[in-house]
Design goal:
Length: 190
Amino acid sequence: MIFCATKKTFERYHMPLPEKKQTSVSKPVNTVARGDRVYAWGCKIFYFDRRKSLQLVHYDTRLTLFLVDIKIADSTSVSLAVFDSLRRLYAYDPIMLRAVDRYVSAHPDSSYRPITDRRVIATLNRNQREFARDGYAFYDYFENGRVNTERANADINAVPFNRKWGKKTEQCRPYDLFRKKLITKFKEDK
């Protein structure tokens, strides 16, 4: 998996910031190749109850995952938390569970790169501001002394967004779009 993280995320998790290659003063080189976009996730730190947490957004489908209370020592195993969250999100869909397993086995390693895709950055910022309300929304998901991230992830991925296909605009749910993308990628039957 490729985690394209913000500068603040690199700083807070004490990760060395990779060098940015630039072709000109205004345009940084895109750090995610076209074929790797299915494995690319935008990554941004946020705080809930003074705990470091991560918001992840899939590059192509805008599927969003919130991981609460990710310590510095846990930052190396974020990909395992993503796979676990995906399995929980699609727990009642056996076809998708097989696709997620193939997704895991096809790209088990993870790497961190600086984020450059403006659409993903805008989605991260909008999710933080509107859905998560800068972390305060997670008090609504607080149950039995812990945050129910499964329910939060299901709620945010059920909200449709407008997506442009050429000159046409349609509403898509990230949950359905990610499902379609993974099943198509790994050629599973419906």
